[in-house]
Amino acid sequence: MRLKNMLKFRLPIKSNSNQTIMGSRRKFIQKTLGLGMALPLMSTKMASLGLGKKRDGEVPIILCSRGESWGKKVLAPGWEKLQKNESLLDALEVSANVTELDPDDMSVGYGGLPNEDGVVQLDASIMYGPTHNCGSVAGIEGIKTPSSVARLVMERTNHIHLVGEGALRFAKAHGFKEEDLLTDKARRMWLRWKENLSDKDDRLPPEDGDYGLDRPTGTINVLGIDQEGNIAGITTTSGLFGKIPGRIGDSPIIGAGLYVDNEVGAAGATGLGEEVIRTCGSFYVVERMREGMSPQEACEAICKRIIDINGGEKNVDFNDKFVAVNKSGEVGVAQIQGNDNWKPELAYQTPSGFKVVKGSYLIEV
Ligand code: GLY
User: Fold this and answer.
1) Ligand 1 touching residue 219 (CB < 6 A)
2) CA 318 to mean position of chain CA atoms
3) Which residue of 195, 218, 256, 311 has the fewest C-beta atoms within 10 A of its own C-beta?
4) What is the reported pLDDT for 208?
5) What is the CA(83)–ligand 1 centre distance, in A?
6) CB neighbours (10 Å) of residue 221?
7) How far, in Å, CA of 103 to CA of 113, rounded?
8) Which domains does the chain have, with CATH numbers?
9) Has 219 been annotated as catalytic?
10) What's the CA gap between 277 and 273, in Å, rounded?
11) What proportion of the chain, given as a percentage, has pLDDT over 90?
12) Can you tell me the distance from the alpha carbon of 333 to that of 94, in angstroms, rounded to the nearest whole number?
């Protein structure tokens, strides 16, 4: 009987296939942004916050929760609009659509990895600072650009969340085409995952199969501030690979996967959504910024909060990442787990150019 690699495929979202989450190698440390300096071992409770280097902000700005290559692709069309002082929401939407429409991104939109049944179910949200209005869709099937549907929920209804079949009908009423979102690559990964879930079922992987694949991380946050200082954000995802059909992550939940306050700033989350939901993660980040934390400090604070509510690092074998921008265009990014070769990144574009920021992590793996 071939050994089935159950653990590998049962891990929550993480982004580095070479990472192990098992506890012995894990050290709880704080890496200070910019300084790259490891502080001595400390308990979760004692973790130093507010060590993030303060950056000077600049607006207009558009940023996303990805590094260099995706960052360039994603931000270019949005920046084109923003620098011409076109609509902030148009700018963010066109940028979010880049990943949604790209089948090479297996965590967002078309080409996203499916649920347990092999069906792609997408979540997305949008929030607009000047009106404090928002919209989202959850578990929507067959539509490549859920963030565009979320925008219509915000702009063309009195509702905030539309889910499943209702969201699909709403999208079709607005002219969206229903399409098969499952690419061949995503289908093959799903099949491999099914075959390796258990050695007590009847599915057998082929002898020469390559089962070294992890459950890839996903989701993208796109945040922006226009020339007038108005703030908005989008979060979009195909959610947790292999999720139970109908599972909704943090991405479509306002305050969890996305939050915007026009007086303060914006924040977005990626990673294991359940942890972000039960801490109201993005709301938490924005409220800490309101109290005076920098975006970097606030992103570190929510990571610490998640570790704390789980009873400390020994219980944390998942990852979450937060990005944030404040009203003056200062940015921050932090994640729970990381190491020197796996730091959280964000990319942003301002009139001064395109930049990538490597942020901080709280637990070394
Ligand atoms: N953060 C994406 C999800 O958990 O669905």
Assistant:
1) yes
2) 14
3) 311
4) 63
5) 31
6) 31
7) 10
8) 3-17+24-364 (3.60.20.30)
9) yes
10) 6
11) 77
12) 23
